Give the backbone structure.
Amino acid sequence: MNLAHYKIQINPVGLGPAAAGRYRRQVTEHLTWIDRTKMGRLLLTAILFHGQPVTIQPYTGGDCNAVGGGQVVGGAVQGAVWYSPDTFSVHGACSATKSTPNRGLFWDEILFHELIHVFRNVSRKWNKQPLTFGLNRYDDSEEFIAVLVTNIYISDKSNKIKTGLRSDHHGFNSLSTDFDEPFEFFKSGKQTFSLIDAFCKDNRGISVRIANDLADAPFNPIADYFADTEKARTISQNATINRDIKGVMEDMSNYVKGLF
């Protein structure tokens, strides 16, 4: 993979020589996995279109996480990702092989998710909004977009190594089969249509390509949106809040368990 072509710099800051070399090799390998898929190339090309470099460096937090977004350098918003491959490796503390809730937890899936945040930042469309009724477990609108598009990446038929569709941003549980069929995802909440509608209008270039180039992906709500916008709108408007209630009940149950 030609990192220079995509203006991606790997910066193993804080690592010794041997660890730094390993870090560069691992991140390059995972970016190569992404670049070999239709959805991955669309995302990397969309980031490149905005002309800002992207820096990837180790994540220093102690949890099963990574961070992606932007940073202002010389008055321009540049892409930045904090990501540590070893955390999600087969023998890592957060390996998908060690956890039953493991959807979206492979190396490249984690990195892809953070690159969605990079894209939203460099395209100047980042607009984090709180979510309610049915979608509260996504936390905010930007995490909703990142989980949604990563699920399309996972569903991409050119992506041969994958986990499965992720339910939301609270952990790595699987998306309910109630929502994985065409147009069914719009039943997941009353805000679902407006969020996808805003993304498709904010980032129309990549959205149209996702709809057209990945029309054969089993899960692709963006393709559904363009195929029949009014149908998607109506389904979302008629969505119940059952998913929201279920999420609240699960959170309460986990809280009570933590007391004993």
About this structure: The chain has a mean pLDDT of 91.
